[in-house]
Amino acid sequence: MEISNYKHKIIEVVKFHQLDLLGICNNVVYFDYFVDARIKYIQNLKAIYKFKEFLEGNSFFIMAQNECDYIEPAYLDDELNIYTRIDFIKNSSFGLRHLIEKESSKKIIAHGGGIVVHIDRYSKKPLQLPEEFYDAVKKFENKVEVLRTT
Alpha-carbon distance 48 to 67, whole Å? Predict the structure, then answer.
């Protein structure tokens, strides 16, 4: 869970409508932060590495698994740094890890991740990730485990 292993960051600010009756950021909101971070991460990769076939045509992505461990609460107007990285890539899926850091204290208040599967839009079956995706992630990340089989 070392922040130095994460090269991608977005910032979120806790809003009033995200609070529960105890005045803390509702647990489900953290998954919204993960979605925002995941989308920005892929958009960032696409912009840097000029993907030609990834995110085009007949493919889309689904979350096959999602998790979050809560360490400390966030409150109204807290500024949160959401760090994201891809830690493994398989044939048609990849794993994401997230850290949520409270800016004011620099403490990690939550961490989590998930598995994303690349799917054919019409058959709804897993679709091989393109080579350009593997290349981009290996260039961007300090350490990523490539677990694809031939």
Answer: 28
Assess contact for 8 and 40: CB atoms under 8 A: yes
3-class secondary structure per residue, the chain: CCHHHCCEEEEEECCHHHECCCCEECHHHHHHHHHHHHHHHHHHHHHHHCCCCCCCCCEEEEEEEEEEEECCCCECCCEEEEEEEEEEECCCEEEEEEEEEECCCCEEEEEEEEEEEEEECCCCCECCCCHHHHHHHHHHCCCCEECCCC
Cβ–Cβ < 8 Å for 142, 89: no
User: For residue 54, what pLDDT is reported?
Assistant: 63
> What digits encode the pLDDT tens for the residues 73-117?
999 999 999 999 999 999 999 999 999 999 999 999 999 999 999
Domains of the chain: 3-146 (3.10.129.10)
* Mean pLDDT, rounded, for 40-55: 83
Quick check: 83 and 8 in contact, CB under 8 A? yes
**Which among 53, 60, 70, 64 has a CA at the least distance from the CA of 120?**
60
- Average pLDDT of the chain is 93
